Amino acid sequence: MTTIMKSIQTHIPGFPRIGAARELKFALEKHWRGESSEAELEAAGAALRARHWAQQRDAGLDLVSVGDFAFYDQVANHIQLLGCEPARFGFHAEQGQLARYFAMARGVSHAEHEHHAGCTHQHSGEHDSEHGAQALEMTKWFDTNYHYLVPEFSPETEFSLACERLFADVAEAQALGHAVKAVLIGPLTFLWLGKERSAGFDRLSLLDKLLPVYGAVLDRLKQQGVGWVQVDEPILGLDLPPAWRNAFENSYWQLNQVGVPLLLATYFSPLEENVSLACRLPVAGLHVDGVRAAHELTSVADWLPVHKVLSVGIVDGRNIWRTDLDLALAQLAPIAAKRGGKLWLSTSCSLLHTPFSLENETALDAEVKSWLAFAGEKLGELALLRTALLRAGAAGEGPAQVQALDTAGDGAAFDAAWATSRAACASRR
């Protein structure tokens, strides 16, 4: 692959973890019924991760996303990674991390609590004689239908690098030969998503405690040879209080000192008044939602320094429809030209929010099915858009190089795929 071709790269913010045949759901239910061990559940998770990374690689993505897999919820993964499991659960060292993880998600019965904590006295509220310890609250992940487990913060909250799962997943992917982009929820979004357990307490005051732990996570990833770390800060699309907005520059100045390239990811909404803030943060790249913030693409391309990577989420990560590739290409071509042909293509957000694949949808009407693109199909759309940009010369390809690309990449197959997509979009209108 030429250097010019490498200047347009593809990746995704995240991939569905459920599996093509809902394998994760069935593996979890089997484990919760006591019919499988933790080791068997972990093996099922590893098999799914390997399959999903291979699917991303086989679709032509330059980087596979690692850290987006969770047995229950990615925010709960971060609660364990950052060492801030709520004290009210009364966890003890002999309890395994997976057992504690599910306790936060599903709650702990009074009998279980007495067994683990030696508890014989009465409790009140969320930790009482009737309930043991109630599960963490669940609430909507921004404006999606996905619900996450809400972190709980108090003046006593401490953070530490307390879980190896992310680093083990990275090692798994590397052992399989993948180019890894690790995925993290950013520190400010993590705090924003939580709730205060004490009246009058401001969870933003925990940021100074939290940042060194994020730095330690990034340093571990750097030591593992991870080339990029995607740090999700979707709260940049919200109307933030001044204190939260003002915390971004110093936070990312600190994290940037680790020396691993950071891709700051925003999604679900336009940046609006935060465009200039996001573009000037000391990170190596910026991912923006090119679907919900299509009107901002030119401004972002102008504001973002040319030495930084711009990742455009041009394929909708939240809907079930094929992308209008002609419209997407018309939006991308001038942006690629502004960036000197250096552009990353992506979905607008994680594909967690879409069904897995059309392959198993055998009962759908053929015409309706032709209108659809689920997670697997959206990977293919990114590959088509990348090839189209290169063919159009938006990355600086000359006619000879474009002709060579057509020959090497089967131009007839590309033309047929593009025509099929165009016809399907026209049929749906």
Automatic annotation (TrEMBL):
Residues 10-338 form the Cobalamin-independent methionine synthase MetE N-terminal domain. Keywords: Methyltransferase, Transferase. GO terms for molecular function: 5-methyltetrahydropteroyltriglutamate-homocysteine S-methyltransferase activity; zinc ion binding. GO terms for biological process: amino acid biosynthetic process; methylation. Pfam families: Meth_synt_1. InterPro entries: Cbl-indep_Met_Synth_N, UROD/MetE-like_sf. The keyword Magnesium does not apply. It comes from the Bacteria. This is 5-methyltetrahydropteroyltriglutamate--homocysteine S-methyltransferase. The lineage of its organism: Bacteria, Pseudomonadati, Pseudomonadota, Betaproteobacteria, Burkholderiales.
